[in-house]
Design goal:
heterodimer, A: 378 residues, Fumarate Reductase Iron-sulfur Protein, Chain B, domain 2, 65% helix, B: 578 residues, FAD/NAD(P)-binding domain, five-stranded parallel beta sheet, 29% helix, 24% strand, globular
């Protein structure tokens, strides 16, 4: 079966942030310099070739885009300024967009104006919801005095959470189908692959390998805020920690009916601080050191970082005012902003860059299964 | 000039260090000291750079002081500095042919880097042989032939036109012979030319106007050369109108032919969608600025296939008429194809173009930009191996693409363009008439690809353009200019000096057996005197190859400057103990 071509693919991918990919003349320097590329899981050149041909069927379920952590070495080495690192990032965005069951994901990445419009509109919807359901009471008695809005936030949150689960389930179905992972699992007990995946997710070892110098031995000494892996770990663990804290909070308040200072508050505070540091470092890098890693920040990337940062900052703000039992109309606005953004973030989770939380581990598992001989899987 | 014949030979030997090139391997002091002891050697010196002013001055002072009257310099290759030192001897008022250049760099130090002892011994043997040779050297004089200040240019394409203009620009009279009824050659077939993108018709118009405005140039259209005799400076060509033309030198600018694909190669001739690049260019020229329509069908997607009729492999490709395949690269077709692709995409950027190549050779100045532009235009490049050529299907081309790990890629194609190569034109008659050397690729061959790139080994013949090898317009023009410069130098005086190393006959010994006549490869170089029946040599035509000497039983023939006596003495000197 010969490869089917689609000449419209490359111009389309450019809208996801790919550079001048047609400039690539296949010297292979990008693949040679990549610490993570290997026999049987070769990139970026292989992916570039399929993209040049528009061989979408070869790309849509490929795990290679997710084996890359965007150190940017390939873009530095490329003699044709084809920007392979940007290309790999664009391929990840494209894959995510193809997984969004609503079909809006494509527009989200390709048309920043659309993304901005959706962001503002949802903000308006959630904000209005919280204000109007509460009624038209005077603000000072609103949340930091009453409880109605508090309930509204939780109920809307639950609906949004349910929507998220449904959307992610649909994406997951598409992912399973397109990646062709089922035949890899057939007749196997893939526990060792899962164990490897779990360790990989906890430590992000491959991300660290990505930042080993080109001779493959000496890790490049960097300050913590320039260590991409550490920054990413901080964001991830901070995010997970906040998730755990929120869940605990939710359990205690709603089902057990009492408020505890520990452990939810402690976990939330620590996790929030860690995430805020990570997100700040990530934003700082993209502004102050754009030459490292991915070089171009598009709207979808900025959106995620901006949301996480504002959520973390407003979260801390609320922590402080709750602790101090402060009463001021500004705090209510901060709460509305925080809650509306959080809901929007959760609702759009699957069609933004955040979908990588689902896709990357999945593709890492596929990669591991592909590379593990049948008989050695226990 | 002093007559040295009566003098006792006093030989000066000079060993050059070549700034370490020689002295790092060879013990130059030992060579000089050993040669100093050799019979007939009066002085023996070594010096860092013999070719430097100081080195040459040393030789001149030694000669003028009467310390020597024959010179051996052991140094680099004679290709580099033999002429330099001949001139040195002239400046010292000594016959320049009393000089022997011994090569101890290429022939000793460079090839025996690890064996210092052996290299030194070899240098001594070579230098001794030089001494023995120059000891027996006659005082030769260079041969002088008349220089007819008229250039014959054969072929009126752009190279011939440029060669004619440049020769005339140096004050020489030119006859430009063209077999067709118009000047311009293949330039007529082109729309625009790379890398400039200029209209071919514009360039052609300029050349034609200049030629018309140059009274020194005579253009002979519908004319071929039918007869040929003479030698450098004194050629006489019979033209198809029976006129005879006297010329001092000739420039061959006979051009090329396009390779026609073999019958059925890539379905050529069977599938109307399959054409060649020259045909496509012709079509585009006659439909300038219009979207591509082929056999009534608007083209949406097309494929180019490179290396058709070039870089052929025996056993894979059908042989040409002479039974051989064209294994050479035609060089210009890659850029020509990409230039054409860019022209198409300028009018139809939405047209999908697939370029199937083996290797892209955009080698020239400005060519890489043409490739880059094509790739920016979105041309998809696919690479195939010579033994797995693309397959033409009913609406597509299937390529086993090396860049995609030899997976089969099917590209849609309403039109398939075979990028055909360039082959030698119809020059067989000229070749046999003028005894021109031909390379394995059937192109006319230069004397040396680097040192004498536009000269033929036969004196007085020069090459310009595609008769020598596939060239683009820029290269053809450069070659034409170079050939004209060479001719301007050749015909600058009233006579042309030639090396005296030619055969000579001892009439007393010649028996008139005619063995030499059949052995000689150069028409007219050796001939029989009709009255005496003895052999005689035309020094202007003789190349000094020595073939006649080898077959002459009575030893009546010998080679001036390379006599049998000299050879024997050299062999003895080389074989003797160091």
């Amino acid at each position: 079966m010969s490869i089917q071509l689609d000449p419209t693919f490359l111009p389309d991918l450019a809208k996801y942030g790919a550079g001048d990919i047609s400039a690539c003349f296949h010297c292979g320097n990008c693949t040679a310099v990549c610490n993570l590329s290997e026999e049987g899981a070769s990139f970026p050149r292989k992916m570039i070739r399929f993209a040049q041909l528009g061989a979408k069927s070869e790309l849509i379920g490929a795990s290679e885009p997710w084996l890359c952590y965007a150190c940017g070495e390939c873009s530095t080495t490329c003699p044709r300024q084809a920007e392979p690192a940007e290309f790999m990032a664009s391929l990840r965005r494209w894959q995510i967009a193809q997984l969004d069951p609503t079909g809006m994901g494509k527009l989200w990445f390709k048309v920043p104006a659309f993304a901005l419009l959706v962001t503002m509109a949802l903000m308006g919807v959630f904000g209005t919801l919280m204000v109007s359901i509460h009624g038209s009471k005077v603000f000072p008695q609103w949340v930091f005095g009453g409880t109605a809005a508090y309930e509204t936030i939780h109920h809307v949150g639950m609906v949004v959470g349910a929507l998220l689960v449904a959307l992610l389930a649909a994406s997951f179905g598409l992912l399973v189908k397109r990646s062709g992972i089922l035949p890899l699992l057939k007749g196997r007990k893939p526990w060792s692959a899962f164990k490897w995946l779990a360790a990989e997710m906890v430590t992000m070892k491959r991300h660290g390998d990505c930042e080993i110098s080109a001779d493959g031995v000496v890790p490049i000494a960097k300050p913590a805020h320039k260590d991409h892996r550490l920054v990413h770990l901080a964001m991830m663990w901070g995010f997970i920690g906040l998730g755990v804290a929120t869940t605990l909070d939710f359990l205690f308040i709603f089902f057990l009916g009492f408020e505890v200072f520990y452990p939810a508050r402690v976990i939330g505070t620590i996790a929030g601080a860690v995430m805020l540091w990570g997100v700040s470092a990530a934003i700082w890098r993209r502004i102050a050191d754009p030459k490292s890693g991915t070089r171009h920040t598009n709207f979808a990337d900025a959106w995620v970082l901006a949301f996480l940062w504002i959520l973390a900052v407003t979260g801390f703000w609320l922590e402080v005012v709750v602790t101090l039992k402060a009463h001021h109309v500004v705090h209510d606005w901060v709460l509305i902003l925080h809650a509306a953004m959080a809901m929007e973030f959760v609702l759009l989770f699957g069609m933004t860059k955040m979908a990588h939380v689902l896709v990357r581990p999945f593709m890492l598992l596929k990669y591991k299964l592909e590379r593990t001989p049948m008989e050695t899987v226990d | 000039m002093t007559d040295h014949k009566t003098e006792t030979p006093k030989i000066g030997v000079y060993i050059c260090h070549c700034g370490g090139n020689i002295s790092d391997t060879i013990d130059v002091k030992r060579v000089a000291a050993t040669l100093a002891e050799y019979p007939n050697v009066e002085i023996s010196r070594e010096y860092p750079f013999m070719c430097s002013d100081a080195g040459q001055k040393m030789v001149i002072e030694d000669i003028q002081a009467g310390r020597n009257n024959r010179v051996v310099i052991a140094a680099c290759s004679p290709m580099l500095h033999e002429l330099t030192f001949r001139k040195t001897l002239e400046r010292a008022d000594l016959n320049p042919y009393l000089y022997e250049h011994v090569n101890i760099r290429e022939q000793a130090s460079w090839v025996h880097k690890a064996d210092h002892e052996g290299a030194t011994d070899k240098a001594i043997r070579l230098a001794r042989a030089g001494v023995e040779k120059i000891l027996r050297q006659d005082e030769l004089e260079s041969i002088q032939v008349d220089a007819t200040k008229h250039v014959l240019v054969i072929g009126g394409g752009p190279a011939g036109m440029k060669a004619a203009l440049d020769s005339a620009g140096r004050g020489l009279r030119v006859t430009l012979v063209e077999k067709s009824d118009r000047l311009g050659g293949h330039l007529h077939d082109l729309d625009t030319v790379y890398p400039s993108g200029l209209k071919a018709s514009k360039i052609l118009g300029r050349l034609l106007n200049k030629i018309k405005a140059t009274p020194l140039i005579t253009v002979a259209l519908n004319t071929t050369v039918t007869g040929w005799e003479g030698f450098v400076g004194n050629f006489s060509a019979t033209l198809s109108d029976q006129s005879v033309l006297k010329a001092g030198a000739v420039i061959l600018s006979t051009g090329y032919d396009h390779v026609i694909p073999a019958d059925g190669e890539y379905e050529y001739g069977k599938d109307p969608r399959v054409t060649t690049l020259p045909q496509l260019i012709e079509h585009m020229k006659s439909h300038a600025g219009q979207p591509l329509v082929w056999h009534g069908k608007a083209i949406k997607s097309m494929a180019f296939i490179h290396c058709v009729g070039s870089r052929q492999k025996e056993g894979v490709h059908a042989p040409q008429a002479d039974g051989k395949v064209n294994d050479y690269c035609s060089r210009v077709c890659c850029t020509a194809a990409l230039h054409t692709i860019n022209a198409i995409q300028e009018i139809q950027p939405e047209l999908n173009i697939y370029d199937c190549y083996r290797d892209i050779r955009t080698y020239g100045r400005g060519h890489e930009e043409i490739y880059t532009k094509a790739s920016k235009n979105g041309v998809v490049f696919l690479r195939f191996n010579e033994d797995a050529p693309p397959e033409i299907k009913s609406a597509s081309v299937v390529v086993k693409d090396v860049l995609t790990w030899n997976q089969e890629v099917e590209v849609p194609a309403d039109l398939v363009v075979l990028v055909t190569g360039i082959k030698q034109g119809a020059v067989d008659e000229l070749v046999s008439m003028m005894k021109l050397p031909v390379s394995a690729d059937r192109f006319l061959q230069e004397a040396h690809p680097k040192l004498r790139p536009v000269e033929v080994a036969n004196n007085g013949f020069y090459l310009a353009g595609n008769c020598q090898a596939p060239m683009d317009l820029v290269e053809s023009a450069a070659a034409a200019g170079a050939a004209s410069s060479k001719i301007a130098a050749l015909l600058s005086k009233d006579y042309i000096p030639l090396d005296p190393y030619v055969a000579r006959v001892d009439a007393d010994k010649c028996t008139g057996c005619e063995a030499c006549l059949t052995e000689c490869s150069y028409t007219g170089a050796i001939f029989q005197n009709p009255t005496t029946r003895k052999a005689e040599v035309n020094a202007a035509l003789c190349k000094g190859c020595g073939a006649c000497v080898a077959v002459c039983e009575p030893r009546a023939l010998d080679l001036a400057g390379w006599s049998i006596d000299q050879m024997e003495a050299m062999v003895d000197a080389m074989a003797a103990e160091v």
